């Protein structure tokens, strides 16, 4: 690649090269399925199940950002949704496809860089992100927000689970400028209720809370250290 800056996109690509983990990193991360990674379990997020139970969201067209091994994508499909699930890692998507086949549900898995994803305006009723946003460097937040705004229908819902600032899972507390001084997000950026409200200020807040911790024998995934949030786009 020619290392020349001719436009705004070239600046973003340069900053990506300093901060962002490449596809190879995530392929290796998912290759060993026996690793003691909490979200490798085949269970949906407890907050996602609660959204359906409380009828805050209903079956519709879903886009999942950073779907990993597909546990939430499969849950959406089992609950009558039409699902497009995106991840950078081919290895994670292979695992996710196996899970969908085992559950006998149809999910459209898409291998793509999130910021190269092309979708129709207002295509989705629900956009879901469990664990992707806290790996996004500050210079890509605007791109991320533009994607969500573009893809979500008026009145649609956007749900997010991310590291709690200073929580037991990491959730490093750094200023945006400090990320670039350190040239690292140190495993994942941490967020607070206030910070999420500021970033997603153009959405109506339905709920922001800590994820509920679930027991090992629960059918749902829930760990201490994540914040869950549900937003609605203005109609």
From TrEMBL:
Record protein name field: Class I SAM-dependent methyltransferase
Keyword presence, ATP-binding: no
Record-annotated Methyltransferase domain positions: 62-156
Molecular functions (GO terms): methyltransferase activity
Entry-linked CDD domains: AdoMet_MTases
One GO-annotated biological process of the protein: methylation
Repeat found in the keyword field: no
Source organism of this protein record: Cytobacillus horneckiae
Entry keywords, A to Z: Methyltransferase, S-adenosyl-L-methionine, Transferase
């Amino acid at each position: 690649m020619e290392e020349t800056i001719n436009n705004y996109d070239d600046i973003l690509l340069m900053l990506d090269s300093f901060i962002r983990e490449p596809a190879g990193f995530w392929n290796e991360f998912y290759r060993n399925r026996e690793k003691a990674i909490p979200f490798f379990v085949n269970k949906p997020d407890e907050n996602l199940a609660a959204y359906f139970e409380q009828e805050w969201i209903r079956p519709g067209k879903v886009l999942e950002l950073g779907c990993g091994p597909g546990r939430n994508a499969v849950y959406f499909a089992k609950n009558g949704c039409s699902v497009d699930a995106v991840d950078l890692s081919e290895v994670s998507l292979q695992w996710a496809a196996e899970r969908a086949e085992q559950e006998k549900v149809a999910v459209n898995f898409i291998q793509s860089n999130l910021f190269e994803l092309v979708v129709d305006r207002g295509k989705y009723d629900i956009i879901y992100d469990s664990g992707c946003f806290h790996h996004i460097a500050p210079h890509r937040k605007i791109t991320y927000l533009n994607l969500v705004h573009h893809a979500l229908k008026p009145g649609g819902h956007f749900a997010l689970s991310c590291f709690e600032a200073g929580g037991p899972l990491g959730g490093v507390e750094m200023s945006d400028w400090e990320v670039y001084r350190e040239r690292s997000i140190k495993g994942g950026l941490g967020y607070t209720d206030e910070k999420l409200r500021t970033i997603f200020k153009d959405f109506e807040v339905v709920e922001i809370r800590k994820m509920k911790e679930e027991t090992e024998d629960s059918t749902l995934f829930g760990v201490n250290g994540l914040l869950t949030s549900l937003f609605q786009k203005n109609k």
